[in-house]
């Protein structure tokens, strides 16, 4: 098999996958009578046309990137974390709690403290499914989903009770939200609403790269994920690294919540998590579970998510379309990966190709 | 209706797998009432050829003829209808179903329209009495021993109307006495059936077959009448060149006891005792072979010694300390080496590169990392050294270990274990499924380890391997050691009787 | 007090139907060796389509029962379609089932939401189907309320429990399904088409998940919203583990979880001073607790669950 053929084979599979994804999304768009090409233009190209749009895209890419980095750590360690949504919510709660409790502590102390709290909040929420999987073999897919629902309810409960803005109680609109947090925990902004979280996300990507490929912990985590039985045989306590990777994954999601609060919203309200937890899974997969793939992937999905908010007003397409696209993208990615790794299939195509050339030659 | 199979031919069969030509222009033929032995080393392409005959694989080229009529089998159902039946080497039974349900699975192929489990049961009883193959139709498969499961397989095949039987290594899991019984049974069956049987054991080939076809690297290298050729001739043709496996010739210079298992009780996956108070002692510089029919506690013993399975009671003393229920890490650090049964899933992390697999047990040791950071250069240089020292055939040290051949994977494991300079080695089925070249290599390496004064527990189902390499042979039956024999007191017959659970006076 | 208990218990049967149907469907999937986490998405699609047809027919007003039937039928057919689609991904292409299921879930939930906004718009209710009092039996105090005055679909769903048991353990198809989920290689060697059998089980499972969704929108909530399913699909998957892949035990699980869910309704309607959010959490917490006790030592689990089959790759 020639190298050229291998590259062409990979390229064609990826191209077919992309076309399949676009076709599937088009079918849904066609069903609601939308103009397919206009919709794709609005979602994918419109946001790139001016700085304001672009900064909104980047704002969305920041939590996506941080969450996806965490999910990739867990995924490589053999555990699929679809609980980032809940972990992020717990991070938000922890961050808000610190900010509300110590409004007068100076910024250099309070901001790190609140950030660490958000990591712990998310980390604990990630550790639970991790330890349940390690010790009791509970499917993480189910436990993390359940913890998402629990966290969402807990989040609303807190906003409605202990965190409720005192102003709301007096003459409020009944919106469950906290008061505006102290300026001491605000992250600075670069341009528009774009904040310094973008630098944090990039630094974290490098750190994750070092962790996973340059340290013994990363080696052990990857070994646990790629061959749990062999890792156990090799003296690696797989359960420990499973739970640890989930705690890291959760901490990242919680931290993403903290950054989002400090950089964008600056008060706890409903809807901050904005499905980032689920989108993060797609970003992690799309980025090849590698930090340097996740960076561009989070930009792309930031684009999709922001673009889909433009769609309802401009082309009459509900914003739910982004969820449809993400579902399709997951399905297409995992399917394409299987085709690419199927040496039998590749071999068969190669022989067909040779037979064809013989006929012509 | 005359539906006898008077002749069966496979002509010019070619089948490719990625990177391998599994069958290369193979032709065989079998007449009515004949027994053809298909002989060859592991990986020679025997099973692939039979799977093609059963319609499980589609050949890339070539054709199959029955009674000189070309036939095409799209799946096993077509092969059944033509009267073929196969007993696979790994039994094709659903463990949590009864014998009757297992037979009923294929009953549609006999042309029955209705699903009637009672009728299937009746048929099983008829067949089992006709061929004197006693099976309990209501037993669950997981309750049965390996020998009983094989009987179920035979009954199943016959119930489905097989008039032509294919047997893939039917004797590999049986005791020598069971093998003899099977040969008698098959000889009786040849009055009504034709048989192809796959084997690499030449005594059986001589005892049972009329004709022999030898495969090597996917090609037919010889076909002829069995009676006209000696086992030595056949063996030479099988391997292509003379391979004489090394033997343990050294006199016993065993030292102090290294490992002793005392009254160990260990549960199987099904939560029933697999080891029932097992006792075994192994000294430095000796190889103790553990003989027994598989499923008598071998796997559990190896796992308990290596901390991978809980020891309910009893002690496992290694270099003077009880290591029962220690973590695998602690046991590894005390100098235990282990060649596990499942080389593809336990021995290596398949997607990891060869070099990463070499350091599986030692990534945290100062030789390969410092302060938690991996020392890539050291790992590379060690890997280069091991690859050349153990002659591991690979494109490079960054190749995924899972993509290597079985023999090379085993070399990677062996290299890692030996490089660690263990104080004891547990080797479980170290040569299962390997070709003779690799077997020779592994055997001589094991003997070298022994020479250097290290004790080895060798678990194997190949009696020849055990008898060739061991200083002493322990026979395991239902989780206890029946008896430990010195290598010069052990004969196949005596071991066979012990393996079957018969106590010696 | 007795009123409250009667009230809670009488809700158990009708409110458990969606869980029961979806779990039985998932049971067939998993018995055949396919772990379909997309159940939630299929339910969402079923709920949407099931509600859409009576809604379009009556524009929110009364409709002939035939439109409700049509709603159920199209939800089931759509479920079949989704099941087969999942088969293409996981059986034919052999993609890892867990993550593919998440994809299917997102796709289903997202598509249902998108189409709903386009075809229906805001919150719209439909008349739904009414309860049938079984003559005489429904008059028995307490027992009559709890067992004998529910809608027709609820009765049919419970009749399905013994039917599913019979299919699984007494028919040839059930034998095939169990074999391909336990030892596909053996089934294959016996001439059973593993791929086809798995597709069939997925189609059946999808149909039941679609029906479960339609039940929620037509019979239970009498409307559709983005949060209508809210994890019931995932709970249904968990119930299969809890019920050890056995229809009767799954039924028990469905009733237990519904009992936990009715707690929130009771809190809401009785005005008990108890944080509503905590009541809503209860069933989700229960799932985790139950899974913690049942996930270890699953000797009854289909051994090939989650493992794609490839005849030509020897393992």
Structure characterization notes:
The complex is a heterotrimer of chains A (361), B (505) and C (315). Chain A is mostly helical and 361 residues long. Chain A has one domain (33-317): Orthogonal Bundle (ABC transporter involved in vitamin B12 uptake, BtuC), CATH 1.10.3470. Chain A contains 15 helices and two strands. Chain A has a two-stranded antiparallel ribbon with strand order 1-2. The longest helix of chain A is centred in the middle third of the chain and has 30 residues, at 107-136. Chain A is globular. By secondary structure, chain B is of the alpha/beta class. Chain B folds into three domains: 7-239, P-loop containing nucleotide triphosphate hydrolases (Rossmann fold, 3-Layer(aba) Sandwich), CATH 3.40.50.300; 244-335 and 422-505, 3-Layer(aba) Sandwich (Rossmann fold); 349-420, no CATH class. Chain B contains 17 helices and 22 strands. In chain B, helix 3 (99-105) packs across helix 4 and helix 4 (117-130) packs across helix 5 (146-159). The termini of chain B are far apart. With 315 residues, chain C is mainly α. Chain C has one domain. In chain C, helix 2 (39-58) packs antiparallel against helix 3 (65-92), helix 2 (39-58) packs across helix 9 and helix 10 (232-242) crosses helix 11. Chains in contact: A-B, A-C, B-C.
Summarize the structure.
The complex is a heterotrimer of chains A (361), B (505) and C (315). Chain A is built from 15 helices and 2 strands. Chain A is mostly helical.
Number of helices of chain C: 12
Count of discrete alpha- or pi-helical segments spanning 4 or more residues of chain A: 15
Poorly predicted runs of chain A are none
Measure the end-to-end span of chain A: 18 Å
Spans of at least 5 consecutive residues with low confidence of chain C: none
Describe the biggest sheet of chain A? 2 strands, antiparallel
Number of strands of chain C: 2
- In CATH, the topology of chain A is named ABC transporter involved in vitamin B12 uptake, BtuC
CATH architecture of chain A, please?
Orthogonal Bundle
Question: How would you spell out the order of helices and strands of chain C?
Answer: HHHHEHEHHHHHHH
């Amino acid at each position: 098999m020639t190298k050229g053929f291998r590259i062409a084979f990979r390229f064609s599979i990826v191209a077919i996958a992309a076309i399949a994804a676009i076709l599937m999304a088009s079918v849904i768009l066609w069903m609601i009578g939308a103009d397919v090409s206009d919709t794709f233009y609005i979602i994918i190209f419109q946001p790139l046309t001016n700085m304001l749009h672009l900064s909104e895209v980047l704002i969305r890419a920041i939590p996506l990137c941080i969450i996806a980095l965490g999910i990739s750590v867990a995924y490589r360690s053999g555990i699929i974390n679809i609980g980032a949504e809940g972990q992020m919510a717990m991070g938000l709660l922890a961050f808000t709690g610190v900010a509300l409790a110590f409004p007068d502590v100076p910024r250099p102390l309070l901001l790190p403290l609140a950030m660490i709290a958000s990591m712990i909040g998310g980390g604990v929420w990630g550790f639970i499914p991790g330890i349940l999987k390690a010790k009791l073999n509970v499917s993480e897919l189910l436990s993390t989903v359940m913890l998402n629902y629990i966290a969402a309810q807990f989040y609303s409960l807190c906003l409605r009770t202990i965190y409720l803005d005192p102003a709301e109680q007096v003459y409020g609109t009944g919106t469950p939200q906290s008061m505006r947090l102290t300026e001491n925990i605000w992250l600075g902004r670069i341009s528009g609403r774009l904040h310094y979280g973008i630098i944090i996300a990039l630094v974290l990507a490098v750190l994750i790269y070092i962790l996973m490929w340059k340290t013994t912990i990363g080696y052990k985590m990857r070994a646990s994920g790629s061959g749990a039985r062999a890792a156990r045989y090799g003296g690696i306590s797989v359960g420990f690294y499973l739970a640890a990777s989930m705690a890291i994954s959760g901490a990242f999601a919680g931290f993403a919540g903290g950054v989002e609060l400090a950089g964008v919203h600056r008060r706890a309200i409903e809807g901050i998590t904005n499905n980032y937890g689920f989108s993060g899974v797609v970003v992690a997969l799309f980025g090849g579970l590698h930090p340097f793939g996740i960076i561009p992937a989070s930009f792309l999905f930031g684009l999709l998510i922001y673009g889909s908010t433009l769609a309802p007003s401009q082309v009459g397409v509900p914003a739910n379309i982004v969820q449809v696209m993400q579902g399709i993208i997951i399905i297409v990615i995992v399917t394409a990966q299987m085709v690419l790794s199927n040496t039998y299939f590749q071999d068969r195509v190669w022989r067909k190709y040779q037979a064809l050339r013989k006929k012509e030659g | 209706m005359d539906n006898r199979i008077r002749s069966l031919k496979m002509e010019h069969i070619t089948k490719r797998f990625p990177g391998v030509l599994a069958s290369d222009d193979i032709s065989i033929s079998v007449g009515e009432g004949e027994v053809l032995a298909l002989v060859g080393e592991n990986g020679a392409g025997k099973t692939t050829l039979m799977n093609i005959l059963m319609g499980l694989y589609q050949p890339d080229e070539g054709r199959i003829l029955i009674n000189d009529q070309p036939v095409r089998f799209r799946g096993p159902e077509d092969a059944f209808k033509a009267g073929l039946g196969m007993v696979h080497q790994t039994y094709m039974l659903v463990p949590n179903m009864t014998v009757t349900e297992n037979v009923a699975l294929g009953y549609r192929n006999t042309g029955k329209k209705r699903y009637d489990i009672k009728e299937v049961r009746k048929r099983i009883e008829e067949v089992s009495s006709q061929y004197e193959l006693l099976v309990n139709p209501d037993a669950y498969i997981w309750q049965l021993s390996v020998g009983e499961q094989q009987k179920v397989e035979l009954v199943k095949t016959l119930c489905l109307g097989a008039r032509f039987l294919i047997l893939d290594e039917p004797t590999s899991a049986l005791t020598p006495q069971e093998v003899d019984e099977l040969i008698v049974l098959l000889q009786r069956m040849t009055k009504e059936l034709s048989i192809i049987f796959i084997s690499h054991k030449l005594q059986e080939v001589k005892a049972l077959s009329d004709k022999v076809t030898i495969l090597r690297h996917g090609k037919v290298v010889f076909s002829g009448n069995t009676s006209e050729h000696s086992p030595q001739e056949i063996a030479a043709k099988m391997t292509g060149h003379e391979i004489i496996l090394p033997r343990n010739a050294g006199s016993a210079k065993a030292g102090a006891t290294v490992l002793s298992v005392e009254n160990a009780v260990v549960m199987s996956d099904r939560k029933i005792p697999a080891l029932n108070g097992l006792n075994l002692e192994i000294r430095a510089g000796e190889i103790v072979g553990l003989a027994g029919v598989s499923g008598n506690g071998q796997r559990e013993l190896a796992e308990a010694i290596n901390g991978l399975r809980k020891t309910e009671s009893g002690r496992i003393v290694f270099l003077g300390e009880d290591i029962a229920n220690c973590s695998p890490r602690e046991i590894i650090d005390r100098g235990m080496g282990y060649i596990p049964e499942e080389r593809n899933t336990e021995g290596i992390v398949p997607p990891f590169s060869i070099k990463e697999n070499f350091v599986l047990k030692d990534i945290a040791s100062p030789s390969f990392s410092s302060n938690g950071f991996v020392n890539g250069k050291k790992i590379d240089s060690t890997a280069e050294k091991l690859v050349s020292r153990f002659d591991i055939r690979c494109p490079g040290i960054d190749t995924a270990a899972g993509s290597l051949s079985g023999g090379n994977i085993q070399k990677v494991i062996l290299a890692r274990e030996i490089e660690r300079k263990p104080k004891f080695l547990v080797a479980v089925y170290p040569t299962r499924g390997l070709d003779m070249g690799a077997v020779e290599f592994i055997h001589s390496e094991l003997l070298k380890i022994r020479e250097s004064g290290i004790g080895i527990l060798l678990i194997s189902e190949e009696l020849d391997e055990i008898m060739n390499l061991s200083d002493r042979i322990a026979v395991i039956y239902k989780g206890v050691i029946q008896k430990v024999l010195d290598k010069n007191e052990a004969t196949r017959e005596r071991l066979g009787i012990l393996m079957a659970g018969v106590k010696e006076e | 007090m007795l009123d409250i208990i009667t009230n809670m218990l009488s809700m158990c049967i009708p409110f458990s139907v969606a869980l029961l149907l979806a779990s039985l469907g998932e049971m067939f999937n998993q018995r055949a060796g396919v772990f379909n986490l997309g159940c939630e998405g299929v339910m969402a699609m079923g709920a949407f389509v099931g509600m859409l047809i009576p809604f379009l027919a009556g524009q929110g007003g009364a409709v002939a029962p035939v439109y409700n039937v049509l709603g159920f039928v199209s939800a089931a057919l759509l479920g079949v379609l989704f099941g087969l689609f999942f088969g293409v991904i996981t059986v034919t292409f052999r993609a890892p089932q867990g993550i593919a299921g998440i994809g299917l879930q997102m796709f289903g939930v997202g598509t249902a939401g998108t189409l709903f906004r386009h075809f229906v718009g805001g919150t719209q209710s439909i008349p739904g189907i009414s309860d049938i009092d079984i003559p005489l039996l429904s008059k028995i105090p307490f027992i009559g309320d709890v067992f004998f005055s529910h809608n027709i679909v609820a009765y049919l769903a419970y009749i399905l429990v013994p039917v599913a048991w019979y299919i699984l353990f007494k028919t040839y198809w059930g034998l095939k399904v169990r074999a391909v989920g336990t030892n596909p290689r053996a089934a294959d060697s016996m001439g059973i088409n593993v791929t086809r059998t798995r597709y069939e089980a997925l189609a059946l499972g999808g149909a039941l998940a679609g029906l479960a969704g339609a039940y929620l929108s037509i019979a239970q909530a009498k409307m559709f919203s983005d949060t209508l399913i809210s994890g019931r699909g995932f709970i249904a998957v968990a119930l299969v583990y809890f019920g050890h892949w056995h229809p009767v035990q799954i039924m028990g699980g469905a009733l237990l979880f519904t009992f936990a869910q009715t707690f929130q309704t009771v809190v809401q309607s009785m005005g008990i001073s108890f944080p509503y959010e905590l009541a809503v959490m209860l069933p989700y917490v229960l799932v985790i607790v139950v899974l913690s006790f049942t996930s270890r030592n699953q000797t009854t689990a289909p051994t090939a669950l989650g493992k794609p089959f490839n005849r030509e790759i020897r393992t």
